[in-house]
Amino acid sequence: MKRVNRTFPLPYFTINKNFIIQAYSEEAEKTFGSTENLLDIVDEESLPKIRKWVVPDVRKLTLEIHLKPFESEGNPLTCDLHVNWQNDLYAEVLIIMKDAQLLKVTKTMDQLRSRLDDTNFALLEEKEKLEEAIQHGNRLSAPFINLTCDTALVPLFGQITVEKMYAVEEELLQSSQDDEIDRILFDFTAVGEMDPEGTRVLKDIMSSLFYMGVSVVVVGLQPKQVKNFHVLQFPSQISFLNSLQQAIQKYCTT
Q1: What's the confidence (pLDDT) of residue 244?
Q2: Any idea what the CATH number is for the domain that residue 38 is in?
Q3: What CA–CA distance (Å, rounded) separates 32 from 45?
């Protein structure tokens, strides 16, 4: 295999019928390096087409094929492969890119794709942080506070939503069991709207507490919220007090 003496502005090869490169131009060497077989630079999807049509019986033809990317990563490159058989043994092959800017565009697209992947990963991280912050905020909307050795306070804040109730359910039930609490005061003084689905979850939490042997006292319920308790049929064992002050005086003073 030798480099041809003529200078071509495009990759040029002389091959035999087995696609072994006999000679090549300086541009071919710059573009593809030292390659012994033409098929080595061809993308796998284009190999059947070349094997079928680049034969001595077809003296002259032009094929659109895909080449492997010039670098280790990237998309296949589209080009026109011009073939002219000199005889039954050797053929001249000229490679012309479909677009002179194709390589530049391909590299630019790869760079944009890489930047997009980085951006998506960063957005995913921010999304996870936001979800974690929301979960933390939901847990803080119903903290578990020990008042005495047998009585705890759960002040509820803001809207009663299903997300908030699911966020506090496990910790509330676990804390009640671990601290051997006999009584929990649910303070509704700072509660706004009561979402129906969230209120159902709250009812289930209170029912679970009763099964665990914990008494539930609802404090500071507003008149408009009483309807929610009636419609959803909260456990009849619930005790009600008008204010947290009354509850503390009754259960937390000796």
Answers
A1: 86
A2: 3.30.450.20
A3: 19
